[in-house]
């Protein structure tokens, strides 16, 4: 039976510069502090290009956007890479029955408009944050939203349901806020109305959008808004990076990724990609597969570049994740013909010693291994 020893070199997220067109649909939460411009400035600091437009009338709902001529004209104005969709701040936190009536149908209309313009555009649902003290206006009608945590939970549920229903992506801004509050409750992200974002809240949102759209970390961005010190900026960048990039599949962000393991002479590949439509494995030895979780046996030792290529949005978007795999075969006959040799022997005190019985000894071999023996005579 052949034994296979594998070592992996994992390629990180692409460090190449990217150019992306984004349309932001929302209201004052998106408009505040010119959040789209901040996303662009963060991108520029890493050599990436983001061109954007926006439709953000105050208090706008998905219902309002679905019939807003400005919104619809902007959707159809070009083939966008991404369209970010933010609902009215309270509506998605209402009861599931109310959300299914007041929010979901109009999200569907907007999605239909996006797809009719271009099948290549990826919608991103902007998961917003709960109000600092919950929704005090409506909690008498639906008690779960009387607190920040309860409101945040309902926003998370509704936005993720829309994300998965429409095979879209989610920008988990609200959960980045939640993590920031958990780690440093003294850093206030709200304006005095305890609802809208101040500059810290908007910067955290912008960092989250950058990580979601480019699948890169915002950590180290040289763009820091006025009034935010470098230590706080690094804190917010790190929160956004961890929340998004540690859990891409949780947010259904299109991504190609895999892991692998071995059992005897078979290599098992585990597809960990998210939000994809098509898949192709290139095992680096001239063989390919379209199986989701293939098993592959290498016939010869060597170093192989294994790639998982996924595509989405009618193959308009392609992503590749690669590992270098070093495959070495050894057999029992190899061990017989080339037995390992003892180099040194030590006792339990680390002293060199000749081989003896009735005491524990450590044997160091020429292949770099060691063995503990206790021979009884």
Short account of what is shown:
With 377 residues, this protein is α+β, with helices and mostly antiparallel strands. The chain contains eleven helices and 17 strands.
Topology overview:
Elements: E1 3-5, E2 8-10, E3 19-25, H1 28-31, H2 35-45, E4 49-55, H3 62-66, H4 69-75, E5 82-85, H5 96-102, H6 104-117, E6 122-126, H7 148-165, E7 169-171, H8 173-183, H9 199-214, H10 230-245, E8 258-263, E9 266-271, E10 278-282, E11 288-289, E12 295-296, E13 302-312, E14 317-330, H11 332-337, E15 342-346, E16 360-365, E17 370-374
Parallel strand pairs: 3-4, 3-5, 5-6, 6-7
Antiparallel strand pairs: 1-14, 2-14, 8-9, 9-12, 10-11, 10-13, 13-14, 15-16, 16-17
Helix pairs in contact: 2-9, 8-9, 8-10, 9-10
Describe this entry's structure for a reader.
By secondary structure, this protein is of the alpha+beta class. The protein has three domains: 19-251, Rossmann fold; 255-333, Immunoglobulin-like, CATH 2.60.40; 340-374, no CATH class. Helices cover 31% and strands 25% of the residues. The protein has eleven helices and 17 strands. The chain has helices at residues 28-31, 35-45, 62-66, 69-75, 96-102, 104-117, 148-165, 173-183, 199-214, 230-245, 332-337; strands at residues 3-5, 8-10, 19-25, 49-55, 82-85, 122-126, 169-171, 258-263, 266-271, 278-282, 288-289, 295-296, 302-312, 317-330, 342-346, 360-365, 370-374. Strands 1, 2, 10, 11, 13 and 14 form a six-stranded antiparallel β-sheet that branches. A hairpin with a 4-residue loop joins strand 16 and strand 17. The longest helix is centred in the middle third of the chain and has 18 residues, at 148-165. 36% of the residues are buried.
């Amino acid at each position: 039976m052949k034994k296979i020893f594998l070592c992996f070199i994992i390629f990180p997220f692409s460090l190449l510069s990217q150019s992306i067109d984004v349309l932001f649909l929302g209201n004052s939460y998106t408009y505040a502090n010119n959040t789209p411009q901040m996303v662009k400035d963060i991108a520029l600091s890493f050599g990436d290009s983001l061109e954007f437009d926006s439709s953000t009338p105050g208090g706008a709902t998905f219902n309002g956007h679905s019939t807003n001529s400005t919104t619809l004209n902007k959707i159809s104005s070009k083939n966008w890479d991404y369209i970010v969709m933010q609902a009215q701040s309270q509506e998605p936190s209402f009861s599931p029955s109310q959300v299914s009536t007041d929010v979901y149908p109009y999200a569907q209309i907007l999605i239909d408009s996006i797809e009719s313009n271009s099948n290549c555009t990826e919608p991103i649902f902007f998961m917003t944050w709960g109000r600092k003290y919950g929704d005090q206006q409506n909690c008498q009608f639906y008690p779960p939203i009387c607190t920040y945590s309860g409101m945040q939970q309902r926003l998370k549920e509704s936005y993720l349901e829309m994300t998965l229903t429409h095979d879209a992506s989610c920008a988990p801004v609200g959960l980045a806020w939640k993590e920031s509050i958990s780690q440093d409750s003294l850093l206030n992200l709200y304006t005095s109305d305890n609802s809208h974002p101040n500059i810290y809240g908007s910067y955290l949102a912008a960092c989250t959008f950058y990580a979601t759209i480019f699948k890169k970390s915002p950590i180290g961005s040289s763009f820091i808004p006025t009034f935010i010190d470098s230590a706080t900026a690094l804190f917010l960048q790190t929160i956004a990076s961890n929340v998004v990039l540690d859990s891409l599949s949780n947010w259904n962000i299109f991504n190609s990724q895999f892991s692998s393991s071995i059992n005897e002479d078979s290599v098992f590949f585990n597809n960990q990609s998210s939000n994809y439509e098509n898949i192709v494995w290139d095992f680096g030895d001239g063989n390919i597969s379209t199986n989701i979780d293939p098993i592959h046996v290498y016939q010869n030792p060597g170093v192989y570049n294994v790639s998982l290529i996924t595509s989405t949005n009618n193959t308009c978007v392609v992503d590749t994740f690669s590992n270098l795999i070093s495959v070495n075969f050894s057999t029992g006959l190899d061990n017989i013909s080339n037995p390992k040799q003892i180099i040194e022997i030590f006792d339990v005190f680390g002293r060199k010693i000749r081989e003896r019985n009735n005491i524990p000894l450590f044997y160091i071999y020429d292949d770099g291994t060691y063995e503990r023996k206790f021979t009884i005579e």
